[in-house]
Amino acid sequence: MSALSKPSDAAGRARRLIAPSVALIAVCVLIAGLWKLESATRGVSVVQTTEAGVPMTLYRPLGDTPAPVVVIAHGFAGSQRMMGAYAVTLARNGYIAVTFDFPGHGRNRVPFVADLEDQAARLGLLQGALEQAVNFGLTRAGADRRLALVGHSMAGDVMVRFAEAAQPVAEATVLVSPYLSEDTVTEPLRNLCIVYGALEPQMLHRQGLTAIAGAAGGRPEAGQTYGSHADGSARRLALATGVEHIGVLYSEAALAETLAWLDRTFDRTGSGFIDRRGAGLALVYIGILALAWPLSTWLPRVSDQPQGAGLGWRRLLPVAIAPALITPVVLWRFPTDFLPILLGDYLALHFAVYGILTAVAVWLTRRLEPGSGGGRLDARRLAVATLAASAYATLGLALPTDRYVTALLPGWERLPLVLAIFGGTLIYFLADEWATRGPGAAFGGYWFTKLLFLVSLLCAVALNLNELFFLIIIVPAMLLLFLVYGLLSGWAYRRTRHPAVGAVATAAALACAVAVTFPVVSG
Question: Is 14's pLDDT higher than 70?
Answer without folding.
Answer: no
